[in-house]
Amino acid sequence: MDSYEDEDARGAGGLSSEPPAGHGPEPVPAARQGPAGRPDPAPQSQPMPGPGPVPGRGIAGLSLPYQVAAALSLAIIAALACVHLTMVFLHVAPPNTVTKEHGEAVDGWIYPEFEQNWKLFAPNPLQQNVDVEVMVEYTAADGSRENSGWIDLTADDGEAIRGNPLPSHVQQNELRRAWDFYVNSHDSQNRGNGLRGQLSESYVRRIVMTRLDKRDLGGSVERIQLRSSTRSVKAPEWSDEKIDTRPAYRVLPWWTITAADLPGGVRNGRGEAGQ
């Protein structure tokens, strides 16, 4: 028989007033003990490291003196680019007041390195093969004057380009553009057209001497003579056009070589002591 205390301990419906296991409040864990039996202090939350200062990029990352130097360099490059574009525009533009007044300054800037050639876009584009050849008179080892015969400089360029996937601009255009410059600044009697004629002659001579310096001629070059060999391109087989493919020559007078015709590094067949 249950006692009155047991009945009073039951709640309504015969259920115990004590919460069932697993549904009561979580027990409070005992404090962690330190080495001396003292409780450890509560762990402190560590702040997350924030992003530091981002270093500057480009010019902003340089010191002040270098920033000034970089800004000046960019300004000079921009100014030169603007001047060059202006000169090229005036060179290719129709005659106008500016070119009439400052034509010599424009030509001095453009020729010979930046001359523009529009033959590719002409109604009748160039359909000829032009070879530039040189004959050399040099001093042999015994002191006599010898003649080399005609040397095809254009063929040397063609040999260097053939089979080369990335030929240089010099191999492709230097000699050809120099010859065009000479032809366009001289009449059929090889008389120069003012300053352009003088510049073209000096330019051609220096290029030829650079090419000859790679050859062993047996002595120093005293004089050179240039000529062009022009052949029209043969018509395709399906065309009925008749084209004369025989070469036509333009022969220039002999030029005596001086120190002014030797670019830097060209020894002209002499050793260091003979320069």
Could you walk me through the main structural features you see in this protein, from its secondary elements to its overall organization?
- With 275 residues, the chain is an alpha+beta fold.
- It is built from 6 helices and 5 strands.
- The chain has helices at residues 4-9, 64-92, 97-110, 153-161, 169-184, 194-212, and strands at residues 128-139, 145-152, 221-232, 248-251, 255-256.
- Strands 1, 2, 3, 4 and 5 form a 5-stranded antiparallel sheet that branches.
- A hairpin with a 5-residue loop joins strand 1 (128-139) and strand 2.
- The protein is extended, with a radius of gyration of 45 Å.
- Residues 11-15 and 271-275 have low confidence and may be disordered.
The helix tally amounts to 6
Return the average pLDDT rounded to an integer: 80
Find the count of extended strands (DSSP E, 2+ residues): 5
Order of helices and strands: HHHEEHHHEEE
Distance N terminus to C terminus? 138 Å
Which labels suit this protein?
275 residues; alpha+beta; 5-stranded antiparallel β-sheet; 6 helices; disordered C terminus
Quick structural overview:
The chain has helices at 4-9, 64-92, 97-110, 153-161, 169-184, 194-212, and strands at residues 128-139, 145-152, 221-232, 248-251, 255-256. The chain has 275 residues and is of the alpha+beta class. Strands 1, 2, 3, 4 and 5 form a five-stranded antiparallel β-sheet that branches.
